[in-house]
Task: structure prediction
Amino acid sequence: MFNPSVVKALRSLDDWHFEVLRVLEEKMRHYETVPTDVVARETEASKDLTLKRLSTLHRYGLVWAPRGRERGFVLNYNGLDAIALRSVVNRGILVSIGGRIGAGKESEVYEAVTAEEERVAVKFYRMGSRSFKKYKRHRDIALHSHLYMEASRLAAKRELEALQILYPRGIKVPRPIYRNRHLLVTELIRGIELAKVKAVDDPALLLEKVLRNLVEAFRAGVVNCDLSAYNVIYLPESGDVFLIDWPQWVSPDHATAKFYLRRDIDNVLEFFERRLHHRPNKDIMREILGENVY
Ligand code: ADP
Ligand code: MN
Result:
């Protein structure tokens, strides 16, 4: 289930609390911790009322005061989730959020339902959140938390860009739906990570599908740079594959694009050999990938 505290906050907090969160989001760019006075001024409220609102937000776990309340507050990822989710709900994009379907180094993915009753995937970027947990009260993290959140926002934006290039060209990636801040809504792929697959009927065909998608993505101007069996979703019934996880993509003009493409391909080949005991011969590789890639 999605963080109950954030869900509860969305249900019970009023517009003013969200206004306070938005002020923190904005002012964190300029303040290490945002003083209560600044929040009061920006929301045109008294200091007492502002402190009360901040205490409520603190109780819900959406903000923290890494250097004591007197020094002010910053948003944490719960707070950022709350404003982003509220935006997608207010815009009529999502109506509810459900269980977690995946997690990686820098993200969490949840299932959600749209206003059109489509079940979708929502990826929340969480850059740096591991270090948040590790050094909970550490001053340096407060100094950097807005940079991490900015990086998360940028990653979501970059991933959306890649999907917007790839999806319309028929490359097998989740259909992009919407982005808000560090949150990205896409089509839900009902399959399993290839890394968890033990055996398939036709490994040669499966490998060919993965590689053809990679080559087409390259031709469309996108190199994944982080491809592995964890970022390939396999649908056992249809035998289809989807390539996911694109925030770190580069364009083929990038100085080391070819190197990254080779590395992506090698990761895939390594998995097929080790797990599925399949190694393609050179001619087939050349036929799929073309002379200039392999
Ligand atoms: P990370 O960068 O954290 O690895 P991913 O985009 O790979 O992020 O997502 C983490 C996991 O969530 C994936 O390995 C996959 O299991 C699941 N997942 C991500 N996107 C989708 C999607 N559109 N449909 C279904 N599952 C998904
Ligand atoms: Mn991944």
In short: DSSP finds ten helices and ten strands in the chain.
